[in-house]
Description:
By secondary structure, this protein is of the alpha/beta class. It has helices at residues 7-13, 46-49, 58-70, 81-92, 105-122, 142-147, 154-157, 173-179, 203-215, 267-270, 286-298, 301-319, 346-354, 377-394; strands spanning 25-29, 32-35, 40-43, 97-102, 129-133, 165-168, 184-189, 192-193, 199-200, 219-223, 247-250, 261-266, 327-333, 336-341, 357-358, 360-362, 366-369. It folds into two domains: 7-53 and 301-394, Aspartate Aminotransferase, domain 1, CATH 3.90.1150; 58-298, 3-Layer(aba) Sandwich (Aspartate Aminotransferase, domain 2).
Amino acid sequence: MNTNPYLEKELRHFFYTFKRQPLLLEKAKGSFVWDEKGKKYLDFYSGIAVCGVGHNHPNIVQAIKKQAGRLLHVSNYFYTKPQMALAKALTEKMPNSRVFFSNSGAEANEFAIKLARLWAHQHKRLGREIITFEDSFHGRTLATGAASGSKGKSKEMFSPLPAGFKTVPFNNLDDVESAITSGTIGIMVEPVQGEAGIRVAKSEFFHGLANLCLEKELLLIVDEVQSGMGRTGSFFAFEQYGIKPDIVTLAKGLAGGLPLGATLAQEHIAKFVEPGMHGSTFGGNPVSCAASLEVLKLLSPKALKSVQVSGDYLLKKLSGFKKFPFVKEIRGRGFMLAMELSVEGAPFVNLAREKGLLINCTQNNILRFLPPYFITKQELDKAVKILEIVFLEMN
Ligand SMILES: Cc1ncc(COP(=O)(O)O)c(C=O)c1O
């Protein structure tokens, strides 16, 4: 039986790329979204880690309106005030760096890969190989898809993919060490693997990667597309490890709901880039940059601390679900949390939605929780209550 009233239209007019929830959403505010029938849902998707500061934050909406009334787009052949201010603010967060603005995570990573290859070229390195990790996700372009370690048939289906990536197990330093050859130029890693189902890099592993990069003159490329912008309780997740990456990518939460990607690289790499080597028509659009400046203002030390505190609170509450026989593990950091089940997650997602809570399932059996940062304790308790009812019904 077709329980999705929108599917027929979707199949008629769209490529069938997304397994969508059967909801047509019409408005959103803070931690909530509403469907076309006026039903309200607590949103633990946050647009897949995009609306970290909440839906339609008034400061962001105001900044967008103001900028849209002034200047929508002029191309990157000209300077704009929001883009310049954002470049300054972001590079201050990663000393000695420069930034390139794009529109998405995949594009930000694509440029990170280009930068690593450019650096290798300038240093007359023998090879071009970047080590990446099993289950990692870096995007859906051909190069970022090749870099991703996620399983599935798409690599075979869309071959030939760009060469130059070697995938090794995550959180195992010995495997990384043995994979390094004279052709290796860098290591690309997510501090917390998001699409894999919230797998946190162990501290000794991340430190080990940073040390290997120093020792063997490799670039450490950190993909913060999902883990960055405060999601784990610090601006960048890598800060919590006390390491210094060479290249960092951001997108998702960067502009609070508008498309924007950023690639930050240390000066020793950035200095090789010359006009014509890279570019983007829309990247760094003034409206997206104006929105992003507001996101940055909202991510105060106090706000980041509250993500840590509320994240710990939710993690503790979710830990109580270990009593259910089908719950395998609960894990995560800040507001990037997951519950791994020994059964399929879709029925849990569907039941939670019916009861007014939107949660995401990745890898078929891992429930992923990405709440908005300023969610209240009452709202968190409400979500846990709904989950309890769902889990009792599923038991
Ligand atoms: C870690 C990571 N990198 C890259 C991407 C790709 O981002 P986008 O979908 O904006 O291209 C994602 C998206 O889920 C991601 O989680």
